[in-house]
C-alpha cells in the first residue's frame, strides 16, 4: 500500500479526499453523489452507532422504523419543511420497468405504471412520522413518545464530498412528542448535550453548544440547537443538531391531545440527528500527513502486532508471544489484531496501519525475543519506545486512555487558540483570511446583516453560544446595538 | 388493553393481522404497502440482528454499505436478475419538486429536473455491488471478499401483509466473491447452515434445508439454498435463502481476476439474505389465541414482575422485593421489567403482557409477602405455580432454557407430524386440503409438471431436501421416473 498522500499544507481538501479513499473508508459509487462505505469505514460507523444507541436508550428512547417514502401530500403539509427540502429531493414516479421495444435487452419505465401520487424519498422523516403519531396520540397518557430511527436519507445535493455531503447518507433521527412546551425544550437540550458528550468522549472532538440563527435553522423548527466543531483548516463543521419544533408539525398534521385538565391542545415536538457526516469530522480533526489518526474509543482495531522475522521458526516463536499479548489485551478490554500475513513485508504493514490510524503498533523481532521486549509505536505522536514484554499489555491499556485524552486536548488547544474576538469589520476579514477559525463578534440580530457578511466573506453565524457571557456591544458590521457575541466561521 | 383477538381456528389470516397490530409490533402506514415497525416489534428485530450479525462476523464477514439507488443501465446488466425484478420496482425519475402554479401551497414534480438516467430503488443489491467489486478485484490476492449489508429494499408487491410481504422491508444481504467455484458453493452452503442454526436456536423454529427448483430459484442464481419452516396453519414459509450465483454477475459486470496460475477468469459469487419476514415466521410459529408467544432468546423483556396491592404501603414493600428479584435476574443474564405503572390494574397488565408474549410473569401480592412466595406464570403453557421467593431468580433462569426448548420441541413435533409421504395425486390433493403441511412426493424433475401441479392445487415445490434419502420412484403426477422425493406445500 503506497501512500503518496497530498499534505494538508499543500491542499487540505485534496488531502481529505485522498485520505478517505486510501485509508479504505469510502469511495464514490456509480450513482451520482452516493458513496460506498467500505468495511473499514463502516466498522468505525458501527462503533459510533453502538455508543450513540446506548446513550439514546439510557435517556429513555426506543428504536422504531418508518417508511422510506413520503407521499407528496404529506411532504407538503408542513410548509416551511417542504420548502426547505423540495429543491433537493428524489421523486419516485413509477413502479415498474418494461422491455424497451426500441432497444432489445434494455429496459424502460413502463408509462402505464405511473403512480397516482408521487413519492418523495425521505430527506428527513418529520412528515411521515407525524402523520403516524396522529393515530397514536389521544391523551396526555400517550405522551411522551420517545422514538429514534436509524435510517438512510436522500438529499439531492449538487456538490458532494465523501461523508461530508452526499446525496444518500446514513443517520439517526429522533422524533419525540410531548405534552408541554417546557418538556419538549428540555428534550431538545438534553439530546444536544448527549451529542456533545459523545463528540467529546468518543470522537475526542471539542464542540461548542449553541443555537442557530433564524436563517440557519432547520426548516420547520422553532429553535435549532447544535454542536459546532473546528477542523484543522480553520473551517467549522456542524456535527449534530437538535430541534425544538414547537407545535408546527402537530398543527400541520392535526395532532391534538387531551391534556390533564381535559382540554384539547396541539402536541409539542422535537427532532434530532447525527449522520455519517461525523466520519468527516472525525477524519479532519485528528488525521495528519501520514494518514488517519483514530481515537482509541472508536478505532475498530486498537492495537496491531506486527512480527518481524527472517524464517518460519522465528515467526512461530513470535506468534506464540503475540498471541499471549493479544489474549492479555483482550482480557483488559483492548481489541488487538495480530497481522501475520505472509504476503506483506513489515514495512508495508507499518505503512498500512499508519495510514489507517491504528492507535498503537507493537513490533516484535528476534532481538526483542532475546531481550524479552517489544517496540511500541504511538500513531498520534509517532513516538516509539522499547518496553518489557511482561508489561506491554498493561502499558498498552494505559496508552488507550492517554491517547484518547491527548487527542482531545490537542484538538481543544487548537480550537481554543482559534476563537478570536474581533471588534471591527476590517479585523473580521483579516482574521478570517489569515488566522481562520471561529470569530467571536457582535451582531445586530438581523438576517440582513448576517446575509451581507456572508456575501462579503463567506462566513456564516455558526451559532449563538449557550454558555457565552451576555456582553452587550455594537454590531461588527452595522455598528447597531448587539445583545451578545456570536460565532462566525467559514463552514463545511 | 382489550384483546378481542380472532381465534386461529376462526380465521388464521385475520388472527395474524390482528395480532401484529394489537401486540404493537407493526402497522400499515400512509404509504401503500409500506409498514411502520413499532418499538416493541423493532426491539425483537434488533435482537435478531444482533445475533445474526455476531454469526456473520464469526464466519469472517464484515459489514459495509452500498447505494440505495441502482442506475437503470446497471440494473438491466444481468438479464435474468433484471427480468425478475423489473415488474415490481420503484423508479426515481426526478430530483426536485417545485411550487405548483395551479395549486397554491401545493408542490409538483419539476419537469426540468428529470434525471438523464432513471434510478431504481434497490430491490436487491447484486447489480450495484458487482459494479463496485469490479474495481476492487484484480488478482486472487483480492479474494475472497466477504461482505454483508444491513439495509432497506423495495419491491413493489401488489398484495402486501405486515412483515410477510411489504413494499419496503428491512433485511441483510451478504455478497461474496471467490476465486473458485468450490469455495463459492461452500460459502453458500455455510450461510444456509448459519440461517438454519439461527432459526432453530434463537427463533425456536425447526427448518428443512434444501435447494429450490429452477422455477423457484432467485433471479440470476445457479443454485438457491433455502430454509423452509411450517406455520401452524399448515402453510410453508421460506425463512432464508442463500444463492450460489456462479459467474453470472461477474460476466454481466465483467469482473475478472488473475488466478494463482496467472490466468484470467471470471469471479465466483454468492448472495444470501434474511429479512423482517422472519418476524412473520416467529409470530405464526409460536403464538396462540391469547396473543404473541416469544422464545426467551428473542424476547425484549424475558420476565415481567406485576405487583398486586391495595395501598401505597403494600406497593412500597412489593417494590423492594421486586427490585431485589430484578437485580438477581440481571446478574443471571435475564432481562426483567418491573411493571409498576399506577395507571393500570393488575388484570390489564396481565392481559397486555400475555398479548405481547413475555415468556414469564411474576406476580407478587400481600399474601406472597407473608408467605415469602411469588406466583410464576409461563406464557407458553399458561401454567402457574407458587415458588419460594428466595429461589425465584434461579427458577426463572432455568425456565428461560426450558421454555426455549419446549417451544422448539412443540414446533418440531407439529412440523414432523405434518410431513406426509404420498404416492398418488388423489392422495396428494386430499392431504393438501385436509391435513395440510408438507407433502413428500416423487416428481419427474420438469418445470411443466411443477407448473401444472401448482395450477391444480396451489402447492409449489418448497425444496428438494438436502438430507433426503435418494429413493427413486415415479412422479406423483405424470408417473414418469423420479430421482427422489421433494417437498410440496402451499406457501406464504
Ligand atoms: Zn492557526
Ligand atoms: Zn394437523
TrEMBL record, chains A, B:
It catalyses: tRNA(Pro) + L-proline + ATP = L-prolyl-tRNA(Pro) + AMP + diphosphate. Homodimer. One of its GO terms (biological process) is prolyl-tRNA aminoacylation. Signal peptide: none annotated. PROSITE patterns: AA_TRNA_LIGASE_II (PS50862). NCBIfam families: proS_fam_I. InterPro entries: aa-tRNA-synt_IIb (IPR002314), aa-tRNA-synth_II (IPR006195), aa-tRNA-synth_II/BPL/LPL (IPR045864), Anticodon-bd (IPR004154), Anticodon-bd_dom_sf (IPR036621), Pro-tRNA-ligase_IIa_arc-type (IPR004499), Pro-tRNA_ligase_II_C (IPR016061), Pro-tRNA_synth_II (IPR017449). This is Proline--tRNA ligase. Catalyzes the attachment of proline to tRNA(Pro) in a two-step reaction: proline is first activated by ATP to form Pro-AMP and then transferred to the acceptor end of tRNA(Pro). Its EC number is 6.1.1.15. The keyword NADP does not apply. Belongs to the class-II aminoacyl-tRNA synthetase family. ProS type 3 subfamily. Residues 27-295 form the Aminoacyl-transfer RNA synthetases class-II family profile domain. It is found in: Cytoplasm. Pfam families: HGTP_anticodon, ProRS-C_1, tRNA-synt_2b. SMART domains: ProRS-C_1 (SM00946). It is an enzyme of class 6 (ligase). Consists of three domains: the N-terminal catalytic domain, the anticodon-binding domain and the C-terminal extension. GO terms for cellular component: aminoacyl-tRNA synthetase multienzyme complex; cytoplasm. It comes from Aquaticitalea lipolytica. GO terms for molecular function: ATP binding; proline-tRNA ligase activity. Keywords: Aminoacyl-tRNA synthetase, ATP-binding, Cytoplasm, Ligase, Nucleotide-binding, Protein biosynthesis. The gene is proS.
Amino acid at each position: 500500500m503506497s501512500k503518496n498522500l497530498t499534505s494538508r499544507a499543500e491542499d487540505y481538501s485534496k488531502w481529505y479526499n485522498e485520505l478517505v479513499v486510501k485509508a479504505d473508508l469510502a469511495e464514490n459509487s456509480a450513482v451520482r453523489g452516493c458513496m460506498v462505505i467500505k468495511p473499514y469505514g463502516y466498522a468505525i460507523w458501527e462503533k459510533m452507532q453502538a455508543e450513540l444507541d446506548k446513550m439514546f436508550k439510557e435517556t429513555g428512547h426506543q428504536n422504531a422504523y418508518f417508511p422510506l417514502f413520503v407521499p407528496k401530500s404529506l411532504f407538503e403539509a408542513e410548509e416551511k419543511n417542504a420548502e426547505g427540502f423540495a429543491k433537493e429531493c428524489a421523486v419516485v414516479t413509477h413502479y415498474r420497468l418494461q422491455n424497451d421495444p426500441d432497444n432489445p435487452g434494455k429496459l424502460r419505465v413502463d408509462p402505464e405504471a405511473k403512480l397516482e401520487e408521487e413519492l418523495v424519498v425521505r430527506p428527513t422523516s418529520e412528515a411521515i412520522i407525524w402523520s403516524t403519531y396522529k393515530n397514536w396520540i389521544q391523551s396526555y397518557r400517550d405522551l411522551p413518545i420517545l422514538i429514534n430511527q436509524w435510517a438512510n436519507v436522500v438529499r439531492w445535493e449538487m456538490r458532494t464530498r465523501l461523508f461530508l455531503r452526499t446525496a444518500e447518507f446514513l443517520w439517526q433521527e429522533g422524533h419525540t412528542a410531548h405534552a408541554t412546551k417546557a418538556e419538549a425544550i428540555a428534550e431538545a437540550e438534553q439530546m444536544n448535550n448527549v451529542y456533545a458528550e459523545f463528540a467529546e468522549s468518543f470522537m475526542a472532538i471539542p464542540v461548542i453548544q449553541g443555537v442557530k440563527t433564524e436563517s440557519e435553522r432547520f426548516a420547520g423548527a422553532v429553535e435549532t440547537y447544535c454542536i459546532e466543531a473546528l477542523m484543522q483548516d480553520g473551517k467549522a463543521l456542524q456535527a449534530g443538531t437538535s430541534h425544538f419544533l414547537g407545535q408546527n408539525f402537530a398543527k400541520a398534521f392535526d395532532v391534538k391531545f387531551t391534556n390533564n385538565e381535559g382540554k384539547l391542545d396541539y402536541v409539542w415536538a422535537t427532532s434530532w440527528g447525527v449522520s455519517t457526516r461525523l466520519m468527516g469530522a472525525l477524519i479532519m480533526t485528528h488525521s495528519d500527513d501520514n494518514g488517519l489518526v483514530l481515537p482509541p474509543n472508536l478505532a475498530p482495531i486498537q492495537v496491531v502486532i506486527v512480527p518481524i522475522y527472517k524464517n518460519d521458526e522465528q515467526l512461530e516463536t513470535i506468534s506464540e508471544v503475540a498471541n499471549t499479548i493479544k489474549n492479555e489485551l483482550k482480557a483488559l478490554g483492548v481489541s488487538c489484531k495480530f497481522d501475520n500475513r505472509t504476503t506483506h513485508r513489515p514495512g508495508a504493514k507499518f505503512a498500512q496501519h499508519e495510514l489507517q490510524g491504528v492507535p498503537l503498533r507493537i513490533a516484535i523481532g528476534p532481538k526483542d525475543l532475546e531481550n524479552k521486549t517489544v517496540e511500541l509505536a504511538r500513531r498520534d505522536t509517532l513516538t516509539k519506545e522499547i518496553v518489557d514484554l511482561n508489561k506491554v499489555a498493561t502499558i498498552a491499556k494505559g496508552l488507550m486512555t492517554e491517547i484518547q485524552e491527548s487527542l482531545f486536548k490537542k484538538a481543544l488547544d487548537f480550537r481554543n487558540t482559534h476563537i478570536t474576538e474581533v471588534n471591527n469589520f476590517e479585523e473580521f476579514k483579516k482574521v478570517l483570511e489569515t488566522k481562520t477559525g471561529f470569530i467571536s463578534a457582535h451582531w445586530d440580530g438581523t438576517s440582513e446583516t448576517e446575509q451581507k457578511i456572508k456575501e462579503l466573506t463567506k462566513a456564516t453565524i455558526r451559532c449563538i453560544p449557550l454558555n457565552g457571557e451576555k456582553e452587550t456591544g455594537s454590531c461588527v458590521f452595522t455598528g447597531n446595538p448587539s445583545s451578545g457575541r456570536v460565532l462566525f466561521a467559514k463552514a463545511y
